[in-house]
Amino acid sequence: MTHPSLEVPFPAPPAATIPPAAGLPTASRPAACRTTLPPFQFRMPILWPDDTTEAYLIRELSVRKLNNLVGRTGNVRPLHRQRIIGRKIVITEKPDLHLVWDKAALYVKPLPHFLFDHAFFTEHLTSTVVPDGEASTLHASACGLLRTYTLLIEHPSDFHIAMEEHLLPSHLDWDAWCTFSGHLRTRLDSLELNQRYQYGELRATRLDIIFRVLRIDSRGFHYVHTRYASLFRQHFGWLLLVFVYVTLVLTALQTLQSSRQGMANEAVQDFSWWFCVLSLLAVAGALLSMVLVFVINFVSNYVATMIHIRKRDKLKKKKMNTGPQP
């Protein structure tokens, strides 16, 4: 049963022209002359025995992690513009990393093939039979993801970059994309989009700060460290520069005191004393913070590992109790 307020943001192809195999044939007419989309039928990937279609869609579309965050509205640059400003397109399959940028990289999620399948979209993304009441949320996420692609791919050069990076199905051509994108631009304005997609590109470093400070998550938004050495380099590398400047000031003060032995006034002596004390406290604080970061990350990794082991053992016991499947 479909939700009354949800709809597919593109028209269905003529039923008589849908072939039994999945595919988007090469367009034979210009996009301006075409009123219907080339037929496409999505094939579900192989899922684990205890997996479901709904859980698969949640993994592919849900961006709940980024809800209630603030960013610049509509800030999505086309792919050719991303290359002009020196960013590399990095493929990610995590929807919450889509359009997050870090240094010279922009994370982009390839457009899921099932979003081209009108029948699949209708059955699974406009249905009221979705766990946890996420029908409208997944629909809004799907529409939001589609909208970002209408902004990322505006020119033939953007389309060629998308094909090079495998962001779109390989059998899609520019004319077919123009038709598809045109329908999306017409219909998406009247549909509800997920709150995350009301904003555009988000900076990874700011998201890390938000998750660590406001959501009390020691790992931040996007944890990429596989060794503690890289973790300390990223978060404490700036301390080396601070210590260099502090050392220069201390050396200058010591030189001043020794060159004018007995002539330095009381204000200079008091300043030197307090600066030395504060420097020692700063060093102690930095060392303490490094120890705390190590302990927090070690404990969180240990707890996550133990939870994973318990889930795995529980699943093994469940399979042993149920016996082999016929």
Description:
The chain has 326 residues and is mainly α. Helix content is 50%, strand content 4%. It has nine helices and four strands, in the order H-H-E-E-E-H-H-H-H-E-H-H-H. The protein has helices spanning 53-61, 79-84, 118-125, 135-152, 156-164, 174-187, 204-213, 228-259, 266-322, and strands at residues 88-91, 100-102, 105-108, 202-203. Strands 1-3-2-4 form a four-stranded mixed β-sheet. Strand 2 and strand 3 (105-108) form a beta hairpin. Helix 4 packs across helix 6 (174-187) and helix 8 (228-259) packs antiparallel against helix 9. The longest helix is centred in the last third of the chain and has 57 residues, at 266-322. The radius of gyration is 28 Å and the shape is elongated. It comes from Discina gigas. Keywords: Membrane, Transmembrane, Transmembrane helix.
Cα-atom radius of gyration:
28 Å
User: Uncertain segments of ≥5 residues (pLDDT<50)?
Assistant: 15-35
Strand order of the largest sheet: 1-3-2-4
* Distance between the first and last residues' Cα: 32 Å
- Average pLDDT for all residues: 75
Query: What's the total helix number?
Result: 9
The share of residues in helices is: 40-55%
Largest sheet: 4 strands, mixed
In brief:
A hairpin with a 2-residue loop joins strand 2 and strand 3.
Give the arrangement of secondary structure elements.
Blueprint: H1 53-61, H2 79-84, E1 88-91, E2 100-102, E3 105-108, H3 118-125, H4 135-152, H5 156-164, H6 174-187, E4 202-203, H7 204-213, H8 228-259, H9 266-322
Parallel strand pairs: 1-3, 2-4
Antiparallel strand pairs: 2-3
